[in-house]
Amino acid sequence: MTPLSALLRKELRLEWRTREAVPAMALFSVTTFVVFHFGLQRDAVDGALAAGVLWVTLLFAAMLGANRLFVSDSEDGALEGILLAPIDRTALYAAKAIAFAAYLAIVEIVAVPAFYLLLLGPSAGGAVPGLLAVLGLADIGIALTGTLVSGLATRTRSRDLLVSLLGLPLLMPVIIAAARATTPLLAAAGPGDLPGRWLAVLALYDLVIGLIALAVFDFLLED
Amino acid sequence: MYGKGLRTLSIATALTLTGAFALALFYAPMDADQGFLQKIFYLHVPMAIVSLCGFVAGGVFAIQHLRSGDRRHDLRSYVAIHMSLILGVGTLVTGSIWARASWGHWWLWDEPTLVSFLIVFLLYACYQPLRFAIEDPDRQARYASVFAIVAGAFVPLNFMVVRMAQQKVHPRVLSASSNLPGEMWLVFIVSLLGMTLLYITLWRYEMAAKNVRGQIRKLRRRLGADVVAGRSAAPQ
Predict the structure, then answer these.
(1) Interface of chain A toward chain B, CB-CB under 8 angstroms
(2) Is residue A196 a contact partner of residue A149, using CB atoms and an 8 Å limit?
(3) Which residues in chain A have Cβ-Cβ distances shorter than 8 Å to B154?
(4) pLDDT-based confidence at B169, cuts 50/70/90?
(5) Chains A, B: CB contacts under 8 A, how many?
(6) Which residues, numbered 103 to 142 in chain B, qualify as contacts with chain A under a Cβ-Cβ cut-off of 8 Å?
(7) Digit-coded pLDDT (tens) for B46-60
(8) What's the angle, vertex CA B222, arms to CA B219 and CA B226, rounded to 5?
């Protein structure tokens, strides 16, 4: 068993046993859709408005999850154990990021159908393949950035505040590209074409943030 | 050591900046569309450029800090970002005034440079909250450096994405250089030089102040006084 798969199994098992982050994120997403219904005073949304509601909700739910990523490790002392083990620190980052991406995917399995049911018109069914591509690329970006920010903010005095404060500006390119790519998919007249260049932007963001995170993450664990 | 030559540098800065503004007012030709209003360009654009370069410089110092483990590089990075934030406030305010006067709105979302600058500013505004939420000085320096590197690399990425998102293109000062008259270019270059000097001078003053504070702290400690570190990036 490689260190990466061991760490990943530990992350997933911990989440399976405690069920701390994922149910809270899913519940938060559904509640936020209801909040948007009343805040916007609309029974159904489409186009840019629908894309905005979906992505703002998913992004805020992701920030909620990013807050928790390192908390149990650093409070219960698992982090020291992992750091004492003779393994590459990058494995810890990779395991956390993969686990976080998996949490986001699970949350979206609940949140996106809920969004269709609660806020979208019935004609939006054909958008699913395109939406899956956008969701996948955006999840990778959110997971990479969220894990880095969480590692940066967890062992500070004001971690809950800092994760969102740092994460939202850093994720601005993701929300720009994801919202632009999703807008034609959720158009009132039925799904339009998926704009490929916004997928390319998402992929580029994932690549750049991934490389930066790999370069600097070790320094967050040096003591 | 940071105090050396500060007097000469300050005088040079004051002269260049005064000269630049005098040139902007009396020498540079009036803009055909915008008239006198366009003069804010000689303040706003150099400020924005210097501020962004300062953020990137903060990232470069941070890389040096992580590579060498020398805390002085961290202090340089901290002061560079601090000064850039101050110029950043100036950039946002002057940009807003310019937008109000020439387009009639205090804020324009279809101006990519303005929007990217706001995002970058919001990100860097978290630098100090992050830094001073960490007690241990070594960890504080290391985490701040990690942040400075990530944010420094984020600056060009963010500018690219925001620019792509805007269909309409507004006056792009630097790429429109070909249709900027020669006199305007000259004045702009002098203003940019003045602003760069101002940045370097402020940076040097702040570095000198931080070092003096660190030395005083050291002397006090030697006298047996209780020294409370408090919220300061100065050497312990």
Answers:
(1) 148, 152-153, 155-159, 161-162, 165-166, 168-170, 172-173, 176-177, 180, 197, 201, 204-205, 208, 212-213, 215-216, 219-220, 222-223
(2) no
(3) 170, 212
(4) very low
(5) 81
(6) 119-120, 122-123, 126, 129-130, 133-136, 138-139, 142
(7) 999 999 999 999 999
(8) 90
The predicted structure's pLDDT at residue A40: 93
Question: What is the SS3 string spanning A66-109?
Answer: HHHCCHHHHHCCHHHHHHHCCCCHHHHHHHHHHHHHHHHHHHHH
With an 8 Å Cβ cutoff, are A156 and B123 in contact?
no
End-to-end CA distance of chain A: 26
CA closest to B158 among chain A residues: A173
- Whether residues A161 and B139 touch (CB distance < 8 A) is answered with no
Measure in Å the smallest separation between the Cα of A220 and chain B Cα atoms: 6
- CB-CB contact of A181 with A129 (8 Å): no
The pLDDT of residue B68 is: 92
Q: Are A185 and A191 in contact (CB under 8 A)?
A: yes
CA dist A133 and A182 (Å) reads: 10
Write down the residue that tokens 């000689």 correspond to: B42
Q: At what angle do helices A21-40 and A47-68 cross, to 10 degrees?
A: 150
Q: Which amino acid does the sequence have at B17?
A: L
Query: What radius of gyration do chain B's Cα atoms show?
Result: 20
Identify the residue whose tokens are 């070594």: B138
